[in-house]
Specification:
single chain
């Protein structure tokens, strides 16, 4: 795995996404509300839209019929074309985990620099 310095932490604020390139790969980089970062492959597997143009939201979770709530910690990136969602920690689609998935990349913050490992 190679390490790529992507940007300064000041360049991407909470709730923002950005298209970046690292190791020849297009990556959607997201800054969550808590200031942590997530990175996934930029291309939606449904119809190839750029996920970096989507938005990040807390994931809806359920423990049974009629029990729906917003997760405290899990977030999804939502495709701007058809609203497909992808868990930013696993890359899986909450609605179709057997069919739709995006690659997840490890991200760290090192001396106020956002680093992606590809």
């Amino acid at each position: 795995m190679r390490r790529y310095v992507i940007c300064s932490k000041e360049d991407l604020g909470p709730g923002e996404t950005r298209l970046v390139t690292a190791g020849g790969r297009r990556i959607a980089l997201a800054c969550l509300e808590d200031g942590s970062y997530r990175a996934v492959a930029d291309t939606c597997p449904h119809e190839m839209a750029s996920l970096a143009r989507g938005k990040v939201e807390k994931m809806w979770v359920s423990h049974g019929v009629g029990d729906y709530r917003i997760s405290e910690s899990q977030c999804v990136i939502i495709c701007p074309w058809h609203n497909f969602e992808f868990d930013l920690d696993t890359g899986l689609s909450p609605c179709e985990p057997d069919r739709l998935r995006v690659k997840v990349y490890r991200v760290s913050l090192e001396h106020d620099q956002v680093v992606v490992f590809v």
